[in-house]
Amino acid sequence: MLQKVFLSDFDGTITEKDVLVSIMEHFAPQEWKEIYKELLSGKIGIDEGIKRMFNLIPSIKKDEIIDWVLENAKIRDGFEEFLDYLNTKEIPFVILSGGLDFYISQILKPYLPKIHKIYANKALFDKEFIDVQFIYKCGDYCNKSCGVCKPYIIHRDFKNFYRYYAGDGITDILASKHCHFIFATSNLKLYLRKENIDFVPFETFYDILRVLSKKQ
To answer: What's the domain count of the chain?
Structure first.
């Protein structure tokens, strides 16, 4: 029997709203919107889009951004109970995020002992404007310039696992195709429904927990 792992997106999946987009709305000049449109349309790669958007924000804003996200980012209900359940069942919880480590780690600080690993892009603050280092680049399973390439990580690190996946957006479409059981919300839910791909919809982690508890 395969060891199980639960893989999850962060922005808009663990959190109710996309924190990266919220940061742009609050801290970036209006140019970010045009870059974001190009990213969503596929005109530019996800990594290029994220880099260009964060390059609009001065590095000196780091602490202000952290304070703001801690005040405003809301985690979906049931997250702690969900983590407790996974820990009880010895199912590692792994985050695959196209966002940046500096805000993800702060938002999740109370939960870090219960999280197996977080894969995210690395934020750099040693220049005038925030920069991004991409560590987990696309491999044989993807050529979308993802920044954090979820299919690459899945096959490199979790190939021999039974893979649950939870996601909400464009970076989760490819990832979900490489997993066995999918929980979806928002745009990922709409895409999977359109493509007639099996998934379970969710709004809170209590929804996921109810399904998981019946499958174990």
So the answer is: 1
Encoded amino acid at 99, one letter: G
- Cβ 94 vs Cβ 117: under 8 Å: yes
- The owner of tokens 């990213």 is 39
Which residues in the chain land under pLDDT 70? 216
Global pTM?
A: 0.95
- Residue-number span of the structural domain to which 46 is assigned: 3-215
CATH number of the domain that residue 33 is part of: 3.40.50.1000
Q: Report pLDDT digits (tens) over 91-133.
A: 999 999 999 999 999 999 999 999 999 999 999 999 999 999 9
| Side chain identity at residue 45, one-letter code | G
Angle formed at CA 103 by CA 28 and CA 123, multiple of 5 degrees:
75
Residues with Cβ within 8 Å of 133's Cβ and at least 6 positions away in sequence, in order, are 121, 122, 123, 124
